[in-house]
Design a protein that fits this description.
The chain is mostly helical. The protein is 52% helix and 0% strand. It is extended. The mean pLDDT is 76.
């Protein structure tokens, strides 16, 4: 199968100027009628406890699907699912896992440097030597030997 560009080159090689003119007119008509449609999903909506409560209210009072609710409130369907199934975003706690993840994502988008973790506490060298490895756990001895019968 030939591409449109290859087809156009073949028309040029054979001197088919009338066909080239028709092709150009079809292109112009296509450009004139082409539109840019908005995306189905709205972006940039920040999840808040108020928005989470609105999602729960829509879910409880209407027969809307999660996708329809997501489109209506301006978030993706995954966030709607998290609110409905796991109760996420219902509190304003800044240390909640979802709030921490959101703040990290915002920092990454801004180009902020990655926050450094505090160094892990190391035990004193004397204590480390005193610690002994835990004895191995006993295995389940539930099997019978031939002599046990």
């Amino acid at each position: 199968m030939a591409t449109l560009k290859e087809f156009e080159e073949a028309l040029r090689e054979h001197g088919m100027n009338m066909a080239l003119a028709l092709l150009e007119r079809l292109r112009e008509r296509d450009r004139a009628t082409r539109t840019v449609k908005p995306a189905r999903r709205l972006t940039g909506q920040k999840m808040t406890p108020e928005l989470a409560r609105a999602i729960l209210d829509l879910h409880a009072t209407t027969g809307m699907t999660q996708q329809e609710i997501a489109f209506k409130v301006g978030v993706n369907q995954g966030r709607v699912n998290e609110v409905i199934k796991r109760g996420k975003w219902l509190t304003d706690d800044p240390s909640a896992p979802e709030a921490v993840a959101r703040d990290k994502a915002v920092a990454r988008m801004r180009g902020d440097p990655k926050p450094k973790r505090p160094p892990a506490a190391r035990p004193a060298s004397g204590r480390a030597k005193e610690r002994k490895a835990a004895p191995p756990k006993a295995r389940n001895q539930g099997q019978l030997a031939l002599g046990d019968l």
